[in-house]
Give the backbone structure.
Amino acid sequence: MVDLYDYVDSIKDFPVEGIVFKDISPILENYEALEQVKNNFVNVAKEYQPDYIAGIDARGFLFSTLISQELGIGSLMIRKPNKLPGELIEQTYTLEYGSSTLAVQTARNIKNKKIILVDDLLATGGTIKCAEDLISKAGGNVVLSLVVIELLFLKGSENLVSPLKSVLQYD
């Protein structure tokens, strides 16, 4: 087992001044670290018996497909604007350093389905809260949210409806 904290780089003043960006690239570069994160997520996720794993654009995709493949279930994409075809539900949300929009296709058959959301990091909770709202509008039920990194000092989990599990936490 590796110490996953050794596989996260802290980049000061990125993407804007005053933000310390937590870069997970070293986790992705190291098979053992990536496998450890995947196994952690899979062990938690299987307890919730989800129908789908939904990755949030874009780093959430890196983990959502690994989890869904391991569990033998499908994976969904929650994307930024102009990245999905067809009829969409869109919602704008605020980030710790600005605002953005997420979209989900209305054609996905998620009505009454149990969904687990996956992203790389939880800061203020705006992104995951937006994804929860999108899934709910499409008729699905978010039963859990998974993140690699949680920034505890921002208290983002307090803004979520679903329970949150994180692999790494920073005060």
Notes: The chain has a mean pLDDT of 95. Helices lie at 25-29, 31-45, 59-71, 126-137.
